[in-house]
Write a structure and sequence with these properties.
about 15% strand, binds ligand LHQ, Enoyl-CoA_hydra_C, catalytic activity
Length: about 260
């Protein structure tokens, strides 16, 4: 239900249930967990992860054709805790940059998945949908955490309560995502950006994503402290030495991720 490839330090997960707009089936959740773990495993050589979808959708959220949203136990809460949260937490804990290339609809938990990325790029025809309320449910898989932080409570609550499609351009205007590109340019633009990140100073990029994630729960002083700790670690990397040396020698830096 997904395609996982690794090339030159870039791992790509392509959700692959196009006839269901890549709705998240039980099998897909298990495969996602395996793929994300493989990407993040020490010694994997992976330095960036890109997630995209096959066909005309990115991800339509929970697979509603599997007999409701309760998963194997019939309890949606347990379904989330048992099989969604491990995937989303594994993604959040990855020590590398994550990009989502949103090629079409990102709905429900599929929208939550899109927003787990550090950088979200969408095709012009894509749209974002807090689909949950349309089936009498509440936003999950991190949407109530991420969405208000990205667009503010007014827009977040309107999206969550009205369950309306938000076109990619509007999402970019709101600051929900980073960039919109023409449909035909999505794969190349996102892949080029992800390849660039895969050749970046991986330790620094990892600290950046974790610092920004931590900032939501930290006060100013604690965050200054967190920055100092991360800078101490980043400043001791080969990539930091290389970056400074390359600057002084007026040449591009050759980062190795160490
Ligand atoms: C689908 C789905 C789908 C199966 C389209 N499942 N087949 C909640 C509770 C607890 C634990 C787990 O997690 C969650 C999280 C959630 O994500 S809840 C929200 C679940 N998602 C939705 O409610 C979205 C349902 N889908 C839609 O509203 C529409 O399909 C969207 C807006 C995504 C796309 O609309 P269209 O572009 O008009 O396409 P379509 O509706 O014609 O869909 C195309 C096909 O994909 C169709 O199958 P068919 O055999 O008729 O061609 C759909 O049945 C299928 N599909 N979403 N989630």
């Amino acid at each position: 239900t997904l395609i996982f490839t690794v090339e030159d330090g870039l791992a790509t997960i392509t959700l692959n249930q196009p006839d269901k707009l890549n709705a998240i089936s039980t099998k897909m959740k298990a495969e996602m967990l395996t793929a994300v773990r493989e990407a993040g495993a020490p010694g994997s050589g992976v330095r960036a992860l890109m997630i995209t979808g096959a066909g005309r959708g990115f991800c339509a959220g929970a697979d509603l054709s599997e007999g409701g949203v309760g998963g194997t136990t019939g309890d949606p809460g347990a379904n989330l805790v048992d099989s969604y949260h491990p995937v989303f937490l594994e993604l959040a804990h990855l020590d590398m940059p994550v990009i989502t290339a949103v090629n079409g609809v990102a709905a429900g938990a599929g929208m939550s998945l899109a927003l787990t990325a550090d950088i979200v790029i969408a095709a012009r025809s894509a749209f974002f949908l807090q689909a949950f309320v349309n089936i009498g449910l509440v936003p999950d898989a991190g949407s109530t955490y991420l969405l208000p932080r990205l667009v503010g409570e007014a827009r977040a609550k309107a999206m969550m309560m009205l369950g309306e499609r938000i076109p990619a351009e509007q999402a970019a205007d709101w600051g929900l995502i980073y960039q919109v590109v023409d449909d035909a340019a999505l794969t190349e633009t996102a892949t080029t950006m992800a390849q660039r990140l895969a050749k970046g100073p991986t330790r620094a990029l990892s600290h950046i994503r974790h610092l920004v994630a931590a900032s939501a729960g930290n006060g100013y002083e604690s965050q200054l402290q967190a920055e100092a700790l991360a800078q101490r670690a980043a400043g001791r990397t080969d990539d930091s030495r290389e970056g400074v040396q390359a600057f002084l020698e007026k040449r591009p830096a050759a980062f190795t991720g160490t």
